[in-house]
Write a structure and sequence with these properties.
- The chain is an alpha/beta fold.
- Helices cover about 40% and strands about 15% of the residues.
- It folds into two domains: about 5-10 and about 260-390, Aspartate Aminotransferase, domain 1; about 15-260, Aspartate Aminotransferase, domain 2 (3-Layer(aba) Sandwich).
- The protein has twelve helices and twelve strands.
- The structure holds pyridoxal-5'-phosphate.
Amino acid sequence: MELPIYLDYQATTPVDPRVLEAMMPYFTHAFGNAASRSHSFGWDAEGAVDKARKQIASLIGASSKEIIFTSGSTEGINLAIKGAVEMHGAKGKHIITTLVEHKAVLDTCKHLEKQGCEVTYLEPDSTGLVTAEQVAEAIREDTVMVAMIWANNEIGTVNPIREIGAVCHERGVLFFVDGTQAVGKIPVDVGADNVDLMCLSGHKIYGPKGVGCLYVRRRNPRVRIVAQMDGGGHERGMRSGTINVPGVVGLGAACAVAEEDLEKDAAHSIALRERFEEKVLAELDYTTVNGNHEHRLPGCSNVSFCYVEGESLIMGVKDLAVSSGSACTSASLEPSHVLRACGVGDELAHSSIRFGFGRMTTEEDVDFAAEQVISAVKRLRELSPLYEMVLEGVDLSTVQWQAEH
Ligand SMILES: *Cc1c(COP(=O)(O)O)cnc(C)c1O
């Protein structure tokens, strides 16, 4: 077994060997610019990009003209939300989103608030779920867009996108979905699911980093957004800049593999997740799995270990590559905004670790990980006066703590 074991599949995934193989020629002899119309280097590149567009469209139930290539989901999110608000400013400046979005959505909304937009942040239930009823209640005359995560990157909760999309369409409001964690992992069909705009990213689905796309609906309704970058007018004028041909080819191949292996991958990840949780919960008390148990991403397990500090636990399991939440915020010591929105107290939020399982994870990896976690938690709790008090039957909520002098 090679150590450390990678269990951070929501932060990024390894490139699938089938994807790498498809990309290779486009770094070497097939290096053309897909926008070059006057020679075969350009035509070959354009052909490869067209094929990738079809592969992506097929996975998400779109048509290839609805795929706009970007540098990843962060760019897709910025383009979709800012682009729609700029296009539809005459209708209003109200956006509806949730408290459990990725930072890219939250920060884009904050930016727009500074520019005079009004944003409603829906509060999820304790499992991270937002309902269609909540969205229906929040929609106003001047609402331009509902922007929401499909599957949460920290706790894996899967939102009822189809029902929420139906509400948006009924009320004539654009529906943007951050599909980064959902695409390739659970069935996604932008038609049946009533999605108008959706971003996805190569490196979350066993493709390369730095490439992704934005799905932009072309009929019922035809969605129009304002480009956020000026230049050569690539991608139907919505995203200028020379296309990253090897990256796009890799994204296409990743989608083709994901479409073919979707059920197999999901069954594999669910089995590993359950194996891990069973082992850990059997050995450790005061341990809970966060998120929604019914509507959850196959390979995501966010666990709170009461009376253990998350950073100490991460240090204690050095042979496991895990994180205490999203890669983007793990540099700060702030407790996760997602767990906080789910009503998890700061103390317990600090005691939480995200374990991500995926295509390359084995049962052996999971067994090793579970053993490491169990022994590390037991070791840390032996040093914890709080845990000792709880075992002695002290109700911590009634304890009067003495301030230090
Ligand atoms: C990773 C991630 C992003 C950002 O994607 P990049 O392609 O890395 O910019 C956005 N939203 C979610 C839910 C993610 O998991």
